[in-house]
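We give the chain.
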Amino acid sequence: MKASILGCGWLGLPLAQAMIADGFTVKGSTTTPEKLPALADAGIEPYVLSLSTTALQGGADGFLADADILIIDIPPKLKEGDFTDKIQVLMPHIEKSGIKKVVFVSSISVYGNNQGLVTEDTLPLPDSDNGKQLLEAEKMLLANANFQTTILRFGGLVGGERHPVYHLAGRENLPDPDAPINLIHRDDCVGIILSLIRQNIWGGVFNGVAPFHPSRMDYYTGKANEMGLPLPAFAPSGNEGKTVRAEKLARLTGYAFSSLL
């Protein structure tokens, strides 16, 4: 099977490597020419592509040609223009290529300030620009009848050198001390995508959040102490927060999350 990954960065590169190990032929894109050798060394057929609000520049036709699956893993960088415009520019290229299966990496930010338990049936109420544009991009892709789109709403991302505690360590008066965390390890992001593809599950929306929800204060204080970082200080009270559930994913795929948070 052949896959094209638009965005071979923090998640896209290890995903490509896992797919190659699983027998896939993988094309991957980067916006940085200097990263081409690293992609090629990983066994990826590399492309330099730049998606803007007006054009998809680079070898888009070659990148998408003959692919069975397209995985879109590009974050909304709002300083570079409206993200939904970028997705609108991308869609005719997908249609032209004949690709019938698309995975779109989204975020639980689309749920905004919803409180309590949150599932895929919860009405998204994004309160950030990123969340609003991700939700609109989801709707656009799901509405396109030329291909099937699976939406993955991942929680806060952890793995490698990336962890939210680095941004919180030593800070004071942090909000919502009792709100639960909603995180996911990069290894689980990769595992979930592979599990859905292997089992040929396409279409619809899935939350990707580890079933581990201690309070923000307990978790980040403990993690900072574990990593030898300055302890964060939290405000005395705040919102109850939301607990994002991923039972739909577990029910349909049998996927078991790791505990690497």
Q: What stands out?
A: The two ends are 32 Å apart (CA to CA).
